UniProtKB/TrEMBL annotation, chain A:
This is ABC transporter permease. GO terms for cellular component: plasma membrane. It is found in: Cell membrane. PANTHER family: ABC TRANSPORTER PERMEASE YTRF, MEMBRANE COMPONENT OF TRANSPORTER-RELATED. Residues 275-395, 734-849 form the ABC3 transporter permease C-terminal domain. Belongs to the ABC-4 integral membrane protein family. It is a multi-pass membrane protein. The chain crosses the membrane at residues 270-296, 319-345, 365-387, 412-433, 445-476, 497-517, 730-755, 780-800, 820-843. Residues 57-94 are annotated as: Disordered.
From TrEMBL, chain B:
The lineage of its organism: Bacteria, Bacillati, Actinomycetota, Actinomycetes, Kitasatosporales. Residues 21-258 form the ABC transporter domain. The keyword Nucleotide-binding applies. It comes from Streptomyces dioscori. One of its GO terms (molecular function) is transmembrane transporter activity. Keywords: ATP-binding, Nucleotide-binding, Transport. CDD domains: ABC_MJ0796_LolCDE_FtsE. This is Peptide ABC transporter ATP-binding protein. The keyword Hydrolase does not apply. It holds the Pfam family ABC_tran. SMART domains: AAA. Signal peptide: none annotated. One of its GO terms (cellular component) is plasma membrane.
Length: 857, 262
């Protein structure tokens, strides 16, 4: 009990010194809880959405995919007779046929895409009773004829659509226009899909290219009939004459719809938790430093406790109890802040165009529990080492002159362990760099990264001496005696400087590593594009290229040739009898010059001949395929073909790796026109000297189809660079949390050092150090510590990045490109971080009363 | 006996006044109203140049406060303090810091040295901070005088308490300040080491013409001074010229007795 009481008193006596550690715990816990609340809320939103939009029982044609994007661009459908029959099932209150397609683009009269910018789909369909469960018509009326359309209110708001505006729907079956006659508002949260409705006949004709057919049957149960019973009854009713069906209850259907999003949310969740973990790791350093310094400052007090009879255990426990308080306080605040972070993230998503409502805010009971347990356990574990050190304080310490706490020395055992780990890490990295298979190397890379990181953390205090001296010799020379004092202060406790720098090192190592990988990706892709791409223009979009757009491209003047490119699902059987569900690439023969591929044997041009194809070297090796062998290819939606292998392409490439080519003409003889997939991409090459005008003409041709982008090689590379840059920025943003915690660590170390050195500061002020010199001394110390961390982190990170590149060279990451501007920018930025971290401690040191400082015991 | 202004302001030394520092009607009070505590009560004092002055008095008499105010470490509630002809009670922190740096030397009871600097670096610190080059010959002489030549590279924690105080004395002397203030400089030392340090202080006055003001409660330490000022309840109540340890002790006993009977 007394132990508890002293701990409590100590905690409150030093609450100022604990504040930054508490903030570190708070931030990490908040990030974890924020992630959980955010992803849970998103899941709730989608659960509600799918639960409300799914009818009691849904009947779909067998083989229909949940996302309604079959490869030929037309949803699978079934005849109206099936709807009638389903309605007659026992327990069915009603059954209605629904038409729905996600393979559409809707544009306004300015050819602007009305779809979501966040990746949410555009859904076109007929207006059914089932839709009334989730939406209500808030103005106008439901569509009643071939020229009428209704749109959801969020889309109308976002794009300033009003009644009477004309919308054009682009489907694989053609374009058609309709005027807005109604606006329907979601009664639940719709995160972002754009939804348009037509009357049933129009939807059937324009989306399916057929009459009297439906994509789904929505069956409603009579009162007292469960979904499962109804499902059974419906399945009895439907006969084979109508086709084969997939019948799902509300739960089954919404679970299926949710699956993809659930997986995506999980990826986001674990990625964000990973970054929270890094922040925790960094926070551990901060907590260790705080407690080490508090214990050191309290050496005399602890000695007294020991002298009057406290056991080691009691002293040890008293420190741990303080850590417990810290963990509890920080975690509780962190959980609360986590909810705030989640709301902030939702606001951020809203700004990015996603529609989220705080009504759905979901805080599961497990979330605060996870936050608290994590925060407390990490804090107490981090405090364990300092607590043990406190237990070792001898009763004699009470009698000794207080002076400054003994400066920690880094021992040789630490050096050996650190060197061993770093060495092992280095060896693992070296092995990874030389690995023959990326998968083997990846685990080696992981081991190498972890070991070298731990190694660096351990030898950090030993490196601190040399690195700080070198940095000081270069940077602090100009600052005279103040610079020297700063250097000495940074060196006086290498363990503390090491731990403070290590915290910063972790975040910056990851930044450096990722920047090296990212810029190597850009450089490698650019090199590969320069080497192998022969075409001038590339057309791509988030909808397969509909025939009307294809025609617009082909009709563009100034083009020497245009190449179609389709990926077709197929079952592939090699001569060794092995069958694989995979795909083949059907293209025009001009593709061979649009993208130059190295052939290991045979002739790629011959692969575009009738009933011929090529395979990649990886596949050929795996199945022992040689030129002249015959492959059996069962095209999806078509017949089975026997194709002769005419070429084997080298798969040591990043573009079209593993692709198996055949001529579109060959494909056409096995797949009927209505099952033919639209082009995935198209390539165009300008007539000599007409590149500029052709590019402009192509863009103009695609004006009416904003879902497709045409890019020349320069723009394509730029886009690639931008995409990678965006991804990196996002990751840097998440790493910023770890760096913020590390900066708090620097502030913490300095602030506690200033307290610890109160007498020294008083002495220096007494003998004439001006406030400005004093502040500068503390700032310089901070800068040196920050640069020490940055130097270690950047070095380590570049090592990791270079290893990753060597490893991924097998996957096409052939060029190592070190982004020096970024690296140097980060290094210089770290100096400013150091300056910033020293602001408050320096200010407080400057304000210290000289007399009090001298008098401090 | 409330005034210790007994030495004429202008002596026979010519250019410089014979008074290194003086206090006029200095009041230092803490708090206000009923909790007001007066630490210095209208003190007038002149510190003679080239002399060794000791300030004595019981705990709470205000002796340390007086020294802190004279040295520009503490502010006064009213009154003026002059260092030579500079009124330091008017100075802002920046000027005051410069003044301490360039014109005053300090020796504290303990914790005089920066642990990160060697003995030599500690000695030259005030000049380093000021950006001045130390006078090599003078530095050598000071180091020689305090007997530290072989210990200059050592860090404070490698020196004994007496050696540390000698380094502090050397630091105070090295910058040739107009006046050195000592706050019980031998308080933490055994009598032999204390005698050594006091011997240096005495010699620096006699041989180098240094002005020294020292706060102490040790009659033996006070006996090294030329003049002893006695403080009680924030006032100067007595002084003694050319003191001996026994005389100082007697006088202290006297005060104690008076204190008890009053």
């Amino acid at each position: 009990m007394t132990v508890f009481k002293t701990s409590m008193r100590n905690f409150f006596a030093h609450k100022g010194r604990m504040a930054l550690s508490a903030v570190a715990v708070l931030l990490s816990v908040a990030f974890v809880c924020g992630t959980l609340v955010f992803t849970d809320t998103m899941n709730t939103t989608f659960d509600k959405l799918f639960a409300t939009t799914s009818p009691d029982v849904t009947v779909s044609p067998k083989g229909a995919e949940a996302d309604d994007t079959p490869q030929n661009g037309r949803p699978e459908s079934m005849p109206a007779s099936a709807v009638e029959r389903a309605g007659k099932a026992a327990g069915a209150k009603s059954a209605e046929g629904a038409v729905s397609s996600m393979n559409v683009t809707v544009v306004n009269s300015d050819n602007k895409n009305m779809g979501s910018s966040t990746g949410a789909p555009t859904i076109a369909g007929n207006w059914t009773k089932n839709d009334l469960r989730s939406m209500e018509i808030t103005s106008g009326h439901a569509p009643r004829g071939p020229t009428e359309v209704m749109v959801d209110a969020d889309t109308a708001d976002k794009h300033h659509l009003k009644m009477g505006d004309e919308l054009r729907t682009i489907a694989v079956t053609g374009d058609f226009k309709a005027k807005i006659v109604g606006i329907a508002t979601f009664k639940i949260t719709n995160p972002g899909a754009a939804v348009v409705y037509y009357d049933t006949a129009t939807a059937q004709r324009e989306l399916l290219g057929a009459t009297g057919r439906f994509t789904h049957i929505n069956v409603t149960a009579a009162t007292g009939v469960t979904d499962a019973q109804l499902k059974q009854n419906v399945s009895k009713q439907l006969t084979a004459a109508d086709g084969t069906f997939k019948i799902q209850t509300q739960k089954e259907y919404s679970d299926e719809s949710r699956e993809g999003i659930g997986e995506f949310m999980n990826v986001i969740k674990y990625a964000m938790l990973g970054f929270a973990g890094i922040a925790f790791l960094v926070g551990i350093f901060l907590i260790i430093n705080t407690f080490s310094m508090l214990v050191a400052q309290r050496t005399r007090e602890i000695g007294l406790m020991r002298a009057i009879g406290s056991s080691r255990k009691q002293v040890n426990r008293s420190v741990l109890i303080e850590a417990l308080f810290l963990g509890v306080v920080g975690s509780i605040l962190g959980v609360a802040a986590g909810v705030g972070i989640a709301v902030g993230l939702m606001k951020l998503m809203s700004m990015a165009g996603m529609n989220l409502s705080t009504d759905d805010l979901t805080v599961k009971a497990t979330t605060p529990v996870i936050g608290l347990v994590l925060g407390v356990v990490v804090t107490v574990l981090a405090a364990y080492l300092p607590a043990r050190r406190a237990g070792k304080v001898s009763p004699m310490a009470a009698l000794r002159d207080a002076g400054t706490p003994a400066d920690g020395k880094a021992g040789w055992i630490r050096g050996i362990i650190g060197l061993l780990l770093t060495g092992a890490g280095g060896a693992a990295l070296y092995t990874a760099a030389g690995a023959d298979k990326a998968s083997d190397g990846a685990s080696m890379l992981g081991i190498g990264v972890v070991l070298s990181l731990i190694g660096f953390v351990i030898i950090g205090p030993l490196l601190a001496g040399g690195v700080v001296r070198t940095l000081s010799a270069v940077l602090l020379r100009g600052f005279g005696p103040v610079g020297r004092l700063a250097e000495r202060n940074a060196l006086r406790n290498p363990r503390r400087t090491g731990a403070t720098g290590a915290a910063l090192m972790i975040g910056l190592a990851l930044v450096a590593c990722l920047s090296v990988v990212g810029s190597s990706m850009v450089a490698s892709a650019t090199e590969e594009l320069d080497k192998s791409v022969g075409t001038d223009f590339i057309v791509q979009g988030n909808q397969r290229i509909v025939p009307q757009a294809q025609k617009a491209i082909e009709d563009t003047p100034g083009l020497e040739h245009v190449t179609s490119y389709k990926i077709v699902e197929a079952k592939l059987t090699s001569p060794d009898g092995k069958t694989e569900d995979t795909d083949v690439t059907a293209a025009d023969p001009t593709y061979a010059s649009d993208l130059r591929r190295e052939t290991l044997s045979g002739d790629l041009a011959a692969a575009y001949g009738k009933n011929a194809m090529s395979v990649g070297s990886l596949y050929a090796e795996k199945h022992g395929v040689e030129v002249g062998d015959t492959m059996t290819v069962a095209f999806k939606g078509g017949q089975t073909a026997k194709l002769k292998v005419a070429a084997i392409t080298n798969d040591d490439t990043a573009l079209d790796k593993g692709s198996r080519y055949l001529n579109i003409t060959t494909l056409k003889s096995y797949v009927p026109a209505d099952k033919m997939p639209p082009n995935d991409m198209m390539f165009a090459t300008a007539k000599d000297g007409q590149e500029k005008t052709a590019y402009a003409s192509l863009k103009k041709s695609l004006d009416a189809y904003p879902q497709y982008q045409v890019r020349d090689q320069t723009d394509y590379k730029q886009q690639l660079k931008d995409q990678i840059g965006q991804l990196l920025n996002m990751v840097y943003g998440l790493l910023a949390l770890a760096i913020v915690v590390a900066v708090l660590g620097v502030v913490n170390t300095l602030a506690l050092s200033v307290v610890e050195r109160t007498r020294e500061i008083g002495l220096m002020r007494a003998i004439g150090l001006s406030r400005r010199q004093l502040r500068r001394m503390i700032r310089l110390e901070s800068v040196v510590i920050a640069l020490f961390g940055a130097l270690l982190g950047l070095g380590l990170g570049m090592g990791w990045g270079a290893t990753a590149q060597k490893l991924l060279a097998l996957e096409g990451l052939k060029v190592l490109d070190i982004p020096w501007p970024t690296i140097i920018g980060v290094f210089i930025g770290s100096a400013f971080v150091g300056l910033f971290a020293a602001l408050v401690p320096a200010f407080r040191a400057g304000r210290m009363n000289v007399l009090n400082a001298i008098a401090t015991d | 006996m409330t005034s210790a202004v007994t030495i004429p302001r202008h002596g026979g030394t010519g250019e410089r006044t014979a008074v290194a520092a003086r206090a006029r009607q200095v009041v230092k009070a803490y708090g206000s109203g009923e909790t007001r505590v007066v630490a210095l009560d209208q003190v007038d004092v002149d510190i003679a140049r080239g002399r060794f002055t000791a300030i004595m008095g019981p705990s709470g008499s205000g002796k340390s406060t007086l020294m802190h105010c004279l040295a520009g470490l503490d502010t006064v509630s009213s009154g003026q303090i002059y260092l030579d002809e500079t009124e330091i009670t008017k100075l802002k922190d920046k000027k005051l810091t410069q003044l301490r740096r360039d014109r005053i030397g300090f020796i504290f009871q303990a914790f005089n040295l920066l642990p990160t600097l060697s003995a030599l670096e500690n000695i030259t610190l005030p000049m380093d901070i000021a950006g001045r080059k130390p006078d090599k010959a003078w530095l050598a002489q000071v180091v020689e005088t305090v007997g530290l030549a072989s210990r200059l590279k050592h860090r404070p924690n490698q020196l004994s308490g007496g050696q540390q105080q000698r380094v502090a004395v050397a630091r105070a002397l090295a910058a040739r300040p107009e006046i050195i203030f000592g706050d019980e400089p031998t308080g933490n030392l055994d009598s032999r080491a204390g005698a050594e340090v006091l011997g240096f202080l005495r010699r620096s006055v006699d041989e180098l013409g240094q002005t020294i003001v020292m706060v102490t409660h040790d009659p033996v330490a006070a006996s090294y001074a030329d003049r002893v000022l006695y403080l009680a309840d924030g006032r100067i109540v007595d002084e003694m010229l050319r003191p001996t340890a026994d005389a100082v002790l007697d006088r202290m006993k006297d005060f104690d007795a008076r204190g008890r009977t009053s």
